Amino acid sequence: MPKRYLGNIITDTPTAPAGPYENDAASGVWSLAEANAYTAAGLWPTAGNSLTIGLFAGVSTDQDLIQKITVNTLGNTSTFGNLSQARDQSAGCSSSTRGVFGGGGGTNTMDYVTIQSDGNATDFGDLTENRRYPAGCSSSTRGIFAGGSDVSGGILTIDYITIASTSNASDFGDMTVGRRQFAGCASPTRGLLSGGTDGITKRNVIDYITIASTGNATDFGDMLYAGWGIASCSNSTRGLMAGGNGTTAYENVIMYVTIASTGNATDFGDLTVARREFSAVSSPTRALFGAGYTGSNNATMDYVEIATTGNATDFGDFTTAGRNYGACSDGHGGLAA
């Protein structure tokens, strides 16, 4: 192995970080200047941090099944446990330890799991009203469930919960337009709610809220197209939206926004499979898109590195193909660093 002279000591040349950077290592003897340079670039490993677990819950073909995946690696899903009440069309939100799934199947049910421990879900409380196809997002402490539909049309209402407790949801405010089959993502301070339909009109709207407060949503900007059945996730700075029934019945487009600003979405790249009614989870560096509908239920998972732009890469498959999963992870963008 090559040697180098550093601080009057001859050492092995350090191994440069290569990613993924959660639970990675960079062996060797490093100078502070070198370590600081890699840290400033976001490349210094966070050795000892747990890997990000993504959960996908409830699907039309197996309505009480919860599946899990390790976002930082590649591979297929495995079984995590079961929902307390079988249903699809739910939404998910999470802290770094707890995942909550709300609504779906025309119910107001919420249930929760401890993300790092496989097992069945436990009742959390109730939403303020029954919801099919709501959207979810969260900070490290507060979860948001927005919109959806009861029988037809789209609900305006946004609910919130304190994730660490168990109780019924409280009213947060209203979206700019009522809709269903849309998607949410978040930074530690701001939640974005994107796309959807009221059952007649497709929407390209992106709303935003300040998660720690209450009040009505504000217009953020527009997606590249109006569409429903999209998926969305984020790191702490960038939000991604993808797919859906848009200009065509099954879109493959991935787009992104900078969450702290306002403005229209920008093209990121393409999914490996064009689809709608699918779900997304994220780590601090990676976005993973799973399942969906392509004319039949789909088992595809693909991923992108959030800080870059480019087309998605195959990740693995679901053990159960389907659409309309509720999804969350313990490493998403709403969790404070």
In short:
This protein is mainly beta. The protein is 3% helix and 44% strand. β22 and β23 form a beta hairpin.
Detailed description of the structure:
- With 337 residues, this protein is mainly β.
- It folds into 2 domains: 3-40, no CATH class; 53-329, 6 Propeller (Neuraminidase), CATH 2.120.10.80.
- Helix content is 3%, strand content 44%.
- The chain contains 1 helix and 26 strands.
- The chain has one helix spanning 32-40; strands spanning 3-6, 9-12, 53-59, 62-70, 78-82, 91-94, 98-102, 107-114, 122-131, 135-138, 142-146, 157-162, 170-174, 183-186, 190-194, 205-210, 218-222, 231-234, 238-242, 253-258, 266-270, 279-282, 286-290, 298-305, 313-322, 326-329.
- The strands form 7 sheets. Strands 5-4-3-26 form a 4-stranded antiparallel sheet, with no helix packed on it.
- The radius of gyration is 20 Å and the shape is globular.
- The relative contact order is 0.15.
Q: Give me the CATH fold name of the largest domain.
A: Neuraminidase
Q: What quaternary form is this?
A: single chain
Main β-sheet: number of strands, strand sense, barrel status?
Answer: 4 strands, antiparallel
- Written as H for each helix and E for each strand, in order along the chain, the element string is EEHEEEEEEEEEEEEEEEEEEEEEEEE
